[in-house]
Amino acid sequence: MDKMHWILFLHILMGQCCFFTCRLYEYHFIAENKSWYEAQRYCREKYTDLAKVFDMTDMSRLRNSTQNQGEAWIGLNNNTGGNRMWHWSLPGVEYIQNDSSWNLSGRAYWEYPGNCVRKRDKLADVSCNTMTWFICYDEMKKDNKTLYLITTPMNWTQAQTYCRYNHTDLASGLDQVDGEEMKALFAGRVMSVWIGLFRDSWRWSDGSDFSFRYWDMQLFNDEQSNKTCAMTLLNRSGKWSSDECDKEKPFFCYDDKVILVKENKTWEEALYYCRDKYLDLVSITNLEDQQWVQEKAKNASTPFVWLGLRYTCTLGFWFWVTDEVVEYKNWDSDGTTDGCDMSAAMESGEKHKWFNKLDNNLFNFFCYKN
Ligand SMILES: *[C@@H]1O[C@H](CO)[C@@H](O)[C@H](O)[C@H]1NC(C)=O
Ligand SMILES: *[C@@H]1O[C@H](CO)[C@@H](O)[C@H](O)[C@H]1NC(C)=O
Ligand SMILES: *[C@@H]1O[C@H](CO)[C@@H](O)[C@H](O)[C@H]1NC(C)=O
Ligand SMILES: *[C@@H]1O[C@H](CO)[C@@H](O)[C@H](O)[C@H]1NC(C)=O
Ligand SMILES: *[C@@H]1O[C@H](CO)[C@@H](O)[C@H](O)[C@H]1NC(C)=O
Ligand SMILES: *[C@@H]1O[C@H](CO)[C@@H](O)[C@H](O)[C@H]1NC(C)=O
Ligand SMILES: *[C@@H]1O[C@H](CO)[C@@H](O)[C@H](O)[C@H]1NC(C)=O
Ligand SMILES: *[C@@H]1O[C@H](CO)[C@@H](O)[C@H](O)[C@H]1NC(C)=O
Ligand SMILES: *[C@@H]1O[C@H](CO)[C@@H](O)[C@H](O)[C@H]1NC(C)=O
Ligand SMILES: *[C@@H]1O[C@H](CO)[C@@H](O)[C@H](O)[C@H]1NC(C)=O
Ligand SMILES: *[C@@H]1O[C@H](CO)[C@@H](O)[C@H](O)[C@H]1NC(C)=O
Ligand SMILES: *[C@@H]1O[C@H](CO)[C@@H](O)[C@H](O)[C@H]1NC(C)=O
Protein backbone atom coordinates (compact mmCIF):
# COMPACT_ATOMS: atom_id res chain seq x y z
CA MET A 1 0.00 0.00 0.00
CA ASP A 2 2.63 2.53 1.10
CA LYS A 3 4.94 1.44 -1.66
CA MET A 4 2.20 2.06 -4.19
CA HIS A 5 1.73 5.62 -2.88
CA TRP A 6 5.46 6.21 -2.99
CA ILE A 7 5.72 5.07 -6.59
CA LEU A 8 2.77 7.25 -7.58
CA PHE A 9 4.40 10.24 -5.85
CA LEU A 10 7.68 9.81 -7.73
CA HIS A 11 5.81 9.24 -10.93
CA ILE A 12 3.82 12.45 -10.50
CA LEU A 13 6.94 14.53 -9.89
CA MET A 14 8.53 13.20 -13.07
CA GLY A 15 6.24 15.39 -15.16
CA GLN A 16 7.05 18.66 -16.86
CA CYS A 17 9.11 21.03 -14.80
CA CYS A 18 7.22 24.28 -15.14
CA PHE A 19 9.02 26.26 -12.52
CA PHE A 20 9.99 29.29 -14.58
CA THR A 21 8.25 28.56 -17.84
CA CYS A 22 4.64 28.02 -16.83
CA ARG A 23 2.92 31.38 -16.65
CA LEU A 24 -0.82 31.79 -16.78
CA TYR A 25 -0.87 34.36 -19.60
CA GLU A 26 1.46 36.47 -21.71
CA TYR A 27 1.15 39.87 -23.37
CA HIS A 28 2.10 40.52 -26.98
CA PHE A 29 2.58 43.97 -28.44
CA ILE A 30 1.51 44.14 -32.10
CA ALA A 31 3.20 47.00 -33.96
CA GLU A 32 0.56 47.25 -36.70
CA ASN A 33 -1.98 50.05 -36.99
CA LYS A 34 -5.53 48.72 -36.73
CA SER A 35 -8.93 49.92 -35.60
CA TRP A 36 -10.04 48.53 -32.23
CA TYR A 37 -12.36 45.96 -33.84
CA GLU A 38 -9.75 44.85 -36.39
CA ALA A 39 -7.29 44.51 -33.55
CA GLN A 40 -9.81 42.43 -31.61
CA ARG A 41 -10.28 40.10 -34.61
CA TYR A 42 -6.51 39.77 -35.00
CA CYS A 43 -5.94 38.91 -31.32
CA ARG A 44 -8.77 36.36 -31.28
CA GLU A 45 -7.29 34.65 -34.33
CA LYS A 46 -3.63 34.62 -33.35
CA TYR A 47 -3.83 34.64 -29.55
CA THR A 48 -6.72 34.68 -27.07
CA ASP A 49 -8.12 38.22 -27.14
CA LEU A 50 -7.20 41.89 -26.77
CA ALA A 51 -5.24 42.43 -23.55
CA LYS A 52 -7.04 42.64 -20.21
CA VAL A 53 -5.35 43.94 -17.07
CA PHE A 54 -5.89 42.60 -13.55
CA ASP A 55 -3.79 44.97 -11.45
CA MET A 56 -0.64 47.16 -11.32
CA THR A 57 1.63 44.13 -11.71
CA ASP A 58 -0.12 43.31 -14.98
CA MET A 59 0.23 46.94 -16.05
CA SER A 60 3.96 46.70 -15.40
CA ARG A 61 4.22 43.45 -17.38
CA LEU A 62 2.25 45.00 -20.23
CA ARG A 63 4.55 48.02 -20.40
CA ASN A 64 7.63 45.85 -20.16
CA SER A 65 6.52 43.82 -23.18
CA THR A 66 7.37 46.69 -25.57
CA GLN A 67 9.80 49.55 -26.12
CA ASN A 68 7.11 51.54 -27.90
CA GLN A 69 6.23 54.89 -26.31
CA GLY A 70 3.04 55.80 -28.15
CA GLU A 71 -0.63 54.89 -27.78
CA ALA A 72 -1.93 51.32 -28.02
CA TRP A 73 -5.38 49.73 -27.78
CA ILE A 74 -6.25 47.49 -24.84
CA GLY A 75 -9.31 45.26 -24.64
CA LEU A 76 -11.65 47.63 -22.80
CA ASN A 77 -14.64 49.31 -24.44
CA ASN A 78 -17.75 51.26 -23.59
CA ASN A 79 -20.09 49.91 -26.27
CA THR A 80 -22.49 48.56 -23.70
CA GLY A 81 -25.42 50.89 -24.21
CA GLY A 82 -24.65 52.55 -20.89
CA ASN A 83 -25.28 49.43 -18.82
CA ARG A 84 -23.39 50.30 -15.65
CA MET A 85 -22.06 47.61 -13.28
CA TRP A 86 -20.65 47.85 -9.75
CA HIS A 87 -17.01 46.96 -9.08
CA TRP A 88 -14.83 46.85 -5.98
CA SER A 89 -11.61 48.80 -6.34
CA LEU A 90 -9.39 46.06 -4.82
CA PRO A 91 -8.47 43.61 -7.61
CA GLY A 92 -9.97 40.17 -7.15
CA VAL A 93 -12.91 41.09 -4.93
CA GLU A 94 -16.12 40.21 -6.71
CA TYR A 95 -19.20 42.41 -6.35
CA ILE A 96 -22.25 40.59 -5.01
CA GLN A 97 -25.41 42.65 -4.58
CA ASN A 98 -26.76 42.69 -1.02
CA ASP A 99 -29.59 45.15 -0.48
CA SER A 100 -29.18 45.09 3.30
CA SER A 101 -25.88 47.04 2.98
CA TRP A 102 -27.54 49.85 1.03
CA ASN A 103 -29.93 52.60 1.98
CA LEU A 104 -32.15 52.25 -1.05
CA SER A 105 -33.92 55.52 -0.38
CA GLY A 106 -30.44 56.79 -1.01
CA ARG A 107 -28.86 60.18 -0.78
CA ALA A 108 -29.36 63.13 1.48
CA TYR A 109 -30.78 66.23 -0.25
CA TRP A 110 -27.36 67.87 -0.46
CA GLU A 111 -25.77 64.88 -2.21
CA TYR A 112 -25.64 64.56 -6.01
CA PRO A 113 -26.24 61.24 -7.78
CA GLY A 114 -23.18 59.54 -9.26
CA ASN A 115 -21.07 56.45 -9.79
CA CYS A 116 -19.09 56.27 -6.56
CA VAL A 117 -20.21 54.95 -3.18
CA ARG A 118 -19.94 56.53 0.24
CA LYS A 119 -20.75 54.83 3.50
CA ARG A 120 -22.55 56.60 6.30
CA ASP A 121 -24.55 54.11 8.27
CA LYS A 122 -25.46 52.43 4.98
CA LEU A 123 -24.15 52.81 1.42
CA ALA A 124 -25.37 55.28 -1.19
CA ASP A 125 -24.22 56.22 -4.69
CA VAL A 126 -23.07 59.83 -5.00
CA SER A 127 -21.06 61.99 -7.38
CA CYS A 128 -17.38 61.00 -7.58
CA ASN A 129 -16.47 64.72 -7.35
CA THR A 130 -17.69 64.92 -3.76
CA MET A 131 -14.87 65.80 -1.38
CA THR A 132 -15.00 63.60 1.70
CA TRP A 133 -13.03 61.46 4.17
CA PHE A 134 -12.23 57.89 3.20
CA ILE A 135 -11.18 54.45 4.43
CA CYS A 136 -8.06 52.69 3.14
CA TYR A 137 -7.43 48.96 3.38
CA ASP A 138 -3.89 47.77 4.16
CA GLU A 139 -2.93 44.15 3.53
CA MET A 140 0.14 44.37 5.77
CA LYS A 141 -2.11 43.98 8.83
CA LYS A 142 0.29 45.91 11.09
CA ASP A 143 -0.80 45.38 14.71
CA ASN A 144 -3.80 43.51 13.32
CA LYS A 145 -5.07 46.73 11.78
CA THR A 146 -6.31 46.64 8.18
CA LEU A 147 -8.53 49.74 7.91
CA TYR A 148 -7.35 53.35 8.13
CA LEU A 149 -9.59 56.41 8.32
CA ILE A 150 -8.10 59.34 6.38
CA THR A 151 -9.56 62.66 7.45
CA THR A 152 -8.33 64.74 4.50
CA PRO A 153 -11.31 65.32 2.20
CA MET A 154 -10.66 64.13 -1.37
CA ASN A 155 -12.69 63.15 -4.42
CA TRP A 156 -13.07 59.43 -5.06
CA THR A 157 -10.24 59.12 -7.61
CA GLN A 158 -7.80 61.04 -5.43
CA ALA A 159 -8.78 58.90 -2.44
CA GLN A 160 -8.15 55.74 -4.47
CA THR A 161 -4.74 57.02 -5.57
CA TYR A 162 -3.87 57.90 -1.98
CA CYS A 163 -4.83 54.46 -0.66
CA ARG A 164 -3.05 52.59 -3.47
CA TYR A 165 0.13 54.56 -2.85
CA ASN A 166 0.20 54.65 0.96
CA HIS A 167 -1.71 51.45 1.75
CA THR A 168 -3.22 48.79 -0.55
CA ASP A 169 -6.51 50.18 -1.85
CA LEU A 170 -9.79 51.74 -0.75
CA ALA A 171 -11.74 49.43 1.60
CA SER A 172 -13.35 46.81 -0.63
CA GLY A 173 -15.84 43.97 -0.19
CA LEU A 174 -18.65 43.69 2.32
CA ASP A 175 -16.40 41.79 4.75
CA GLN A 176 -14.34 44.97 5.09
CA VAL A 177 -17.11 47.50 4.63
CA ASP A 178 -19.67 45.98 7.00
CA GLY A 179 -17.24 44.15 9.30
CA GLU A 180 -16.36 44.60 12.97
CA GLU A 181 -13.22 46.65 12.32
CA MET A 182 -15.25 49.17 10.32
CA LYS A 183 -17.86 49.38 13.07
CA ALA A 184 -15.06 50.09 15.54
CA LEU A 185 -13.70 52.86 13.25
CA PHE A 186 -17.10 54.52 13.11
CA ALA A 187 -17.47 54.09 16.88
CA GLY A 188 -21.03 55.40 16.77
CA ARG A 189 -20.00 58.60 14.93
CA VAL A 190 -22.08 59.93 12.06
CA MET A 191 -19.67 60.47 9.18
CA SER A 192 -19.57 60.00 5.45
CA VAL A 193 -16.57 58.17 3.95
CA TRP A 194 -15.52 56.89 0.53
CA ILE A 195 -15.15 53.14 0.16
CA GLY A 196 -13.78 51.28 -2.87
CA LEU A 197 -17.03 50.82 -4.76
CA PHE A 198 -17.75 52.39 -8.15
CA ARG A 199 -19.70 51.63 -11.28
CA ASP A 200 -19.06 52.13 -14.96
CA SER A 201 -20.16 50.78 -18.32
CA TRP A 202 -16.70 49.68 -19.51
CA ARG A 203 -16.25 45.99 -20.32
CA TRP A 204 -13.33 43.73 -21.23
CA SER A 205 -13.32 42.25 -24.71
CA ASP A 206 -13.31 38.67 -23.38
CA GLY A 207 -16.27 39.31 -21.09
CA SER A 208 -14.40 38.97 -17.79
CA ASP A 209 -15.22 41.42 -15.02
CA PHE A 210 -11.76 42.60 -13.88
CA SER A 211 -12.37 45.79 -11.91
CA PHE A 212 -8.94 47.40 -12.36
CA ARG A 213 -9.01 50.86 -14.02
CA TYR A 214 -5.99 53.10 -14.64
CA TRP A 215 -7.51 56.20 -16.23
CA ASP A 216 -5.42 59.29 -16.72
CA MET A 217 -7.80 61.74 -15.08
CA GLN A 218 -6.19 64.69 -16.86
CA LEU A 219 -7.16 63.32 -20.27
CA PHE A 220 -10.07 61.01 -19.63
CA ASN A 221 -13.62 62.14 -19.15
CA ASP A 222 -16.21 59.39 -18.76
CA GLU A 223 -19.04 61.49 -20.14
CA GLN A 224 -21.09 61.81 -23.32
CA SER A 225 -18.44 60.97 -25.80
CA ASN A 226 -17.98 58.92 -28.95
CA LYS A 227 -14.61 57.77 -27.65
CA THR A 228 -15.72 54.32 -26.59
CA CYS A 229 -12.52 52.29 -26.86
CA ALA A 230 -9.66 52.33 -24.34
CA MET A 231 -5.96 52.76 -24.99
CA THR A 232 -2.83 52.85 -22.88
CA LEU A 233 -0.52 55.87 -23.17
CA LEU A 234 2.89 54.30 -22.90
CA ASN A 235 4.64 57.64 -22.48
CA ARG A 236 2.39 58.54 -19.53
CA SER A 237 3.30 55.58 -17.29
CA GLY A 238 0.88 53.47 -19.32
CA LYS A 239 -2.15 55.34 -17.97
CA TRP A 240 -5.38 54.89 -19.91
CA SER A 241 -7.50 57.17 -22.01
CA SER A 242 -10.21 56.65 -24.61
CA ASP A 243 -10.49 57.28 -28.33
CA GLU A 244 -12.81 56.66 -31.26
CA CYS A 245 -12.75 52.96 -32.08
CA ASP A 246 -12.08 53.40 -35.79
CA LYS A 247 -8.78 55.23 -35.18
CA GLU A 248 -5.86 53.01 -36.16
CA LYS A 249 -3.27 52.20 -33.51
CA PRO A 250 -0.92 49.42 -32.45
CA PHE A 251 -2.36 47.13 -29.77
CA PHE A 252 -1.77 44.51 -27.09
CA CYS A 253 -3.06 40.94 -27.24
CA TYR A 254 -2.92 38.41 -24.43
CA ASP A 255 -2.32 34.73 -24.77
CA ASP A 256 -3.94 32.44 -22.25
CA LYS A 257 -1.78 29.59 -20.98
CA VAL A 258 -4.53 27.87 -19.00
CA ILE A 259 -7.35 25.80 -20.38
CA LEU A 260 -10.43 24.43 -18.62
CA VAL A 261 -10.98 20.89 -19.87
CA LYS A 262 -14.69 20.20 -19.63
CA GLU A 263 -14.37 16.44 -19.34
CA ASN A 264 -15.15 14.44 -16.23
CA LYS A 265 -12.06 12.61 -15.00
CA THR A 266 -10.50 11.28 -11.80
CA TRP A 267 -7.53 13.30 -10.55
CA GLU A 268 -4.98 10.85 -11.96
CA GLU A 269 -6.71 10.63 -15.33
CA ALA A 270 -6.73 14.43 -15.41
CA LEU A 271 -3.00 14.57 -14.66
CA TYR A 272 -2.11 12.20 -17.48
CA TYR A 273 -4.55 13.88 -19.85
CA CYS A 274 -2.88 17.28 -19.28
CA ARG A 275 0.62 15.86 -19.65
CA ASP A 276 -0.34 14.00 -22.77
CA LYS A 277 -2.29 16.69 -24.61
CA TYR A 278 -0.94 19.91 -23.07
CA LEU A 279 1.73 20.49 -20.40
CA ASP A 280 0.55 19.76 -16.88
CA LEU A 281 -2.16 20.31 -14.28
CA VAL A 282 -2.25 23.96 -13.14
CA SER A 283 -0.60 25.36 -9.99
CA ILE A 284 -1.88 28.45 -8.19
CA THR A 285 0.82 30.28 -6.29
CA ASN A 286 -0.62 33.76 -5.71
CA LEU A 287 -3.85 35.73 -5.59
CA GLU A 288 -3.45 36.93 -9.16
CA ASP A 289 -3.25 33.35 -10.46
CA GLN A 290 -6.24 32.42 -8.35
CA GLN A 291 -8.29 35.22 -9.91
CA TRP A 292 -7.18 34.33 -13.41
CA VAL A 293 -8.18 30.70 -12.97
CA GLN A 294 -11.40 31.25 -11.04
CA GLU A 295 -12.87 33.25 -13.92
CA LYS A 296 -12.72 30.08 -15.96
CA ALA A 297 -14.04 27.87 -13.18
CA LYS A 298 -17.41 29.55 -13.60
CA ASN A 299 -17.72 27.75 -16.94
CA ALA A 300 -17.16 24.24 -15.55
CA SER A 301 -19.83 21.57 -15.87
CA THR A 302 -18.96 20.01 -12.49
CA PRO A 303 -19.26 21.67 -9.05
CA PHE A 304 -15.48 21.39 -8.53
CA VAL A 305 -12.43 21.57 -10.81
CA TRP A 306 -9.18 19.64 -10.19
CA LEU A 307 -5.93 21.53 -9.51
CA GLY A 308 -2.39 20.12 -9.58
CA LEU A 309 -2.24 19.97 -5.77
CA ARG A 310 -1.94 16.57 -4.17
CA TYR A 311 -1.48 15.13 -0.66
CA THR A 312 1.23 12.56 -0.16
CA CYS A 313 0.24 10.16 2.53
CA THR A 314 3.70 8.65 2.73
CA LEU A 315 5.45 11.92 3.47
CA GLY A 316 2.51 13.75 5.00
CA PHE A 317 2.40 17.01 3.03
CA TRP A 318 0.69 18.77 0.12
CA PHE A 319 2.66 19.47 -3.07
CA TRP A 320 2.11 20.99 -6.49
CA VAL A 321 2.77 18.53 -9.30
CA THR A 322 4.76 21.26 -11.08
CA ASP A 323 7.05 21.33 -8.05
CA GLU A 324 6.25 24.89 -6.96
CA VAL A 325 6.30 25.73 -3.25
CA VAL A 326 2.94 25.51 -1.49
CA GLU A 327 2.87 28.97 0.02
CA TYR A 328 -0.27 30.71 -1.22
CA LYS A 329 -3.38 28.83 -0.07
CA ASN A 330 -7.08 29.35 -0.62
CA TRP A 331 -8.65 26.47 1.32
CA ASP A 332 -12.22 26.60 2.41
CA SER A 333 -12.20 26.65 6.22
CA ASP A 334 -13.86 23.22 6.28
CA GLY A 335 -11.79 21.84 3.42
CA THR A 336 -8.35 21.14 4.79
CA THR A 337 -8.36 17.84 6.69
CA ASP A 338 -5.45 15.89 5.24
CA GLY A 339 -5.99 12.36 4.04
CA CYS A 340 -4.74 9.66 1.76
CA ASP A 341 -5.87 9.64 -1.86
CA MET A 342 -6.82 13.30 -1.61
CA SER A 343 -6.22 16.12 -4.09
CA ALA A 344 -7.35 19.72 -4.24
CA ALA A 345 -10.26 20.99 -6.31
CA MET A 346 -11.55 24.53 -6.73
CA GLU A 347 -15.23 25.30 -6.27
CA SER A 348 -16.74 26.27 -9.64
CA GLY A 349 -19.07 28.80 -8.02
CA GLU A 350 -19.35 30.77 -4.77
CA LYS A 351 -15.97 32.04 -3.59
CA HIS A 352 -13.89 29.58 -5.63
CA LYS A 353 -12.25 28.17 -2.50
CA TRP A 354 -10.20 24.96 -2.56
CA PHE A 355 -11.49 21.70 -1.09
CA ASN A 356 -9.69 18.40 -0.64
CA LYS A 357 -11.51 15.68 -2.50
CA LEU A 358 -11.02 11.94 -2.93
CA ASP A 359 -9.11 11.29 -6.16
CA ASN A 360 -11.82 9.13 -7.65
CA ASN A 361 -14.30 12.01 -7.97
CA LEU A 362 -15.04 12.90 -11.57
CA PHE A 363 -14.38 16.59 -12.19
CA ASN A 364 -13.36 19.00 -14.95
CA PHE A 365 -9.75 20.24 -14.65
CA PHE A 366 -7.27 22.98 -15.60
CA CYS A 367 -4.24 22.32 -17.81
CA TYR A 368 -1.28 24.53 -18.74
CA LYS A 369 -0.89 24.78 -22.47
CA ASN A 370 1.87 26.03 -24.73
C1 LIG B 1 1.21 53.72 -37.44
O1 LIG B 1 0.72 55.05 -37.53
C2 LIG B 1 1.61 56.03 -37.01
C3 LIG B 1 0.92 57.38 -37.03
O2 LIG B 1 0.09 57.50 -38.13
C4 LIG B 1 2.91 56.01 -37.83
O3 LIG B 1 3.82 56.97 -37.31
C5 LIG B 1 3.52 54.62 -37.74
O4 LIG B 1 4.67 54.55 -38.57
C6 LIG B 1 2.52 53.55 -38.19
N1 LIG B 1 3.08 52.24 -37.91
C7 LIG B 1 3.07 51.25 -38.80
C8 LIG B 1 3.70 49.96 -38.38
O5 LIG B 1 2.54 51.34 -39.89
C1 LIG C 1 9.31 45.79 -15.60
O1 LIG C 1 10.59 46.34 -15.80
C2 LIG C 1 11.06 47.09 -14.69
C3 LIG C 1 12.37 47.76 -15.08
O2 LIG C 1 13.12 46.94 -15.89
C4 LIG C 1 11.24 46.15 -13.49
O3 LIG C 1 11.69 46.87 -12.36
C5 LIG C 1 9.90 45.50 -13.17
O4 LIG C 1 10.05 44.56 -12.13
C6 LIG C 1 9.32 44.81 -14.40
N1 LIG C 1 7.98 44.38 -14.07
C7 LIG C 1 7.57 43.11 -14.16
C8 LIG C 1 6.18 42.80 -13.70
O5 LIG C 1 8.28 42.22 -14.56
C1 LIG D 1 2.96 61.09 -25.62
O1 LIG D 1 2.78 60.74 -26.98
C2 LIG D 1 1.74 61.47 -27.64
C3 LIG D 1 1.60 60.94 -29.03
O2 LIG D 1 1.41 59.56 -29.01
C4 LIG D 1 2.07 62.94 -27.66
O3 LIG D 1 0.98 63.64 -28.23
C5 LIG D 1 2.29 63.42 -26.24
O4 LIG D 1 2.74 64.75 -26.27
C6 LIG D 1 3.33 62.56 -25.51
N1 LIG D 1 3.36 62.95 -24.12
C7 LIG D 1 4.49 63.03 -23.41
C8 LIG D 1 4.35 63.40 -21.97
O5 LIG D 1 5.57 62.79 -23.91
C1 LIG E 1 -26.48 40.41 3.24
O1 LIG E 1 -25.91 41.06 4.38
C2 LIG E 1 -26.51 40.69 5.63
C3 LIG E 1 -25.94 41.57 6.73
O2 LIG E 1 -24.59 41.89 6.50
C4 LIG E 1 -26.23 39.20 5.88
O3 LIG E 1 -26.80 38.80 7.11
C5 LIG E 1 -26.82 38.39 4.73
O4 LIG E 1 -26.48 37.03 4.89
C6 LIG E 1 -26.30 38.90 3.37
N1 LIG E 1 -27.03 38.23 2.32
C7 LIG E 1 -26.42 37.61 1.30
C8 LIG E 1 -27.30 37.00 0.25
O5 LIG E 1 -25.20 37.55 1.21
C1 LIG F 1 -31.72 56.41 4.35
O1 LIG F 1 -31.41 57.69 3.82
C2 LIG F 1 -32.41 58.66 4.07
C3 LIG F 1 -32.01 59.94 3.36
O2 LIG F 1 -30.72 60.33 3.73
C4 LIG F 1 -32.53 58.86 5.59
O3 LIG F 1 -33.54 59.80 5.87
C5 LIG F 1 -32.87 57.52 6.25
O4 LIG F 1 -32.87 57.66 7.67
C6 LIG F 1 -31.85 56.46 5.85
N1 LIG F 1 -32.27 55.17 6.35
C7 LIG F 1 -31.44 54.32 6.94
C8 LIG F 1 -32.01 53.02 7.36
O5 LIG F 1 -30.26 54.59 7.15
C1 LIG G 1 -10.52 64.64 -8.64
O1 LIG G 1 -9.61 65.68 -8.43
C2 LIG G 1 -8.54 65.71 -9.38
C3 LIG G 1 -7.54 66.76 -8.93
O2 LIG G 1 -8.19 67.90 -8.50
C4 LIG G 1 -9.11 66.00 -10.76
O3 LIG G 1 -8.08 66.03 -11.74
C5 LIG G 1 -10.10 64.91 -11.11
O4 LIG G 1 -10.74 65.19 -12.34
C6 LIG G 1 -11.15 64.72 -10.02
N1 LIG G 1 -11.85 63.50 -10.34
C7 LIG G 1 -13.13 63.36 -10.15
C8 LIG G 1 -13.75 62.06 -10.56
O5 LIG G 1 -13.82 64.21 -9.64
C1 LIG H 1 -5.70 39.61 15.61
O1 LIG H 1 -7.07 39.39 15.28
C2 LIG H 1 -7.47 38.03 15.40
C3 LIG H 1 -8.91 37.91 14.90
O2 LIG H 1 -9.59 39.12 14.95
C4 LIG H 1 -7.32 37.58 16.85
O3 LIG H 1 -7.70 36.23 16.98
C5 LIG H 1 -5.86 37.77 17.29
O4 LIG H 1 -5.73 37.47 18.66
C6 LIG H 1 -5.39 39.19 17.05
N1 LIG H 1 -3.96 39.30 17.30
C7 LIG H 1 -3.40 40.33 17.95
C8 LIG H 1 -1.91 40.30 18.08
O5 LIG H 1 -4.07 41.24 18.42
C1 LIG I 1 0.64 59.40 0.96
O1 LIG I 1 0.49 59.94 2.24
C2 LIG I 1 1.14 61.19 2.43
C3 LIG I 1 1.03 61.56 3.90
O2 LIG I 1 -0.28 61.40 4.36
C4 LIG I 1 0.54 62.22 1.49
O3 LIG I 1 1.16 63.48 1.65
C5 LIG I 1 0.70 61.76 0.06
O4 LIG I 1 0.07 62.64 -0.84
C6 LIG I 1 0.10 60.36 -0.12
N1 LIG I 1 0.40 59.86 -1.45
C7 LIG I 1 -0.49 59.85 -2.44
C8 LIG I 1 -0.02 59.33 -3.77
O5 LIG I 1 -1.64 60.22 -2.30
C1 LIG J 1 -19.77 55.35 -21.94
O1 LIG J 1 -21.08 55.04 -22.37
C2 LIG J 1 -22.11 55.61 -21.59
C3 LIG J 1 -23.43 55.22 -22.21
O2 LIG J 1 -23.39 55.28 -23.59
C4 LIG J 1 -21.98 57.14 -21.53
O3 LIG J 1 -22.92 57.65 -20.63
C5 LIG J 1 -20.58 57.50 -21.06
O4 LIG J 1 -20.42 58.89 -21.12
C6 LIG J 1 -19.57 56.85 -21.97
N1 LIG J 1 -18.20 57.19 -21.60
C7 LIG J 1 -17.30 57.55 -22.50
C8 LIG J 1 -15.95 57.91 -22.02
O5 LIG J 1 -17.55 57.57 -23.68
C1 LIG K 1 -16.92 62.17 -32.60
O1 LIG K 1 -17.16 63.50 -32.14
C2 LIG K 1 -16.27 64.46 -32.70
C3 LIG K 1 -16.53 65.78 -32.04
O2 LIG K 1 -17.86 65.91 -31.66
C4 LIG K 1 -16.49 64.51 -34.23
O3 LIG K 1 -15.59 65.44 -34.80
C5 LIG K 1 -16.23 63.11 -34.81
O4 LIG K 1 -16.51 63.09 -36.20
C6 LIG K 1 -17.10 62.09 -34.13
N1 LIG K 1 -16.69 60.75 -34.60
C7 LIG K 1 -17.55 59.79 -34.91
C8 LIG K 1 -16.95 58.49 -35.36
O5 LIG K 1 -18.75 59.93 -34.83
C1 LIG L 1 -17.43 30.08 -21.18
O1 LIG L 1 -17.89 29.24 -22.24
C2 LIG L 1 -18.46 29.96 -23.32
C3 LIG L 1 -19.01 28.96 -24.30
O2 LIG L 1 -18.13 27.89 -24.48
C4 LIG L 1 -17.42 30.89 -23.94
O3 LIG L 1 -18.00 31.64 -24.97
C5 LIG L 1 -16.90 31.83 -22.87
O4 LIG L 1 -15.87 32.62 -23.40
C6 LIG L 1 -16.37 31.05 -21.70
N1 LIG L 1 -16.00 31.97 -20.64
C7 LIG L 1 -14.80 31.98 -20.05
C8 LIG L 1 -14.57 32.97 -18.96
O5 LIG L 1 -13.93 31.19 -20.39
C1 LIG M 1 -19.89 15.80 -16.03
O1 LIG M 1 -20.61 15.67 -14.82
C2 LIG M 1 -21.65 16.61 -14.65
C3 LIG M 1 -22.29 16.40 -13.29
O2 LIG M 1 -21.35 16.38 -12.29
C4 LIG M 1 -22.67 16.48 -15.76
O3 LIG M 1 -23.67 17.50 -15.63
C5 LIG M 1 -21.97 16.66 -17.10
O4 LIG M 1 -22.88 16.42 -18.16
C6 LIG M 1 -20.82 15.66 -17.22
N1 LIG M 1 -20.08 15.97 -18.45
C7 LIG M 1 -19.65 15.03 -19.29
C8 LIG M 1 -18.90 15.50 -20.49
O5 LIG M 1 -19.85 13.85 -19.09
TrEMBL record:
UniProt keywords, alphabetically: Signal
Q: Where is the C-type lectin domain?
A: 27-137, 142-254, 253-368
Gene3D superfamilies documented for this protein: Mannose-Binding Protein A, subunit A
Q: Which SUPFAM superfamilies match?
A: C-type lectin-like
Task: Tell me which InterPro entries the record gives.
Answer: C-type_lectin-like (IPR001304), C-type_lectin-like/link_sf (IPR016186), CTDL_fold (IPR016187)
CDD domains to which the protein is assigned, alphabetical: CLECT (cd00037)
Any one Pfam family match given in the protein's UniProt record, by short name = Lectin_C
- Residues in the signal sequence: 1-19
**What is the name listed in the Swiss-Prot or TrEMBL entry for this protein?**
C-type lectin domain-containing protein
Organism, scientific name: Oreochromis niloticus
Gene this protein is translated from: LOC100711776
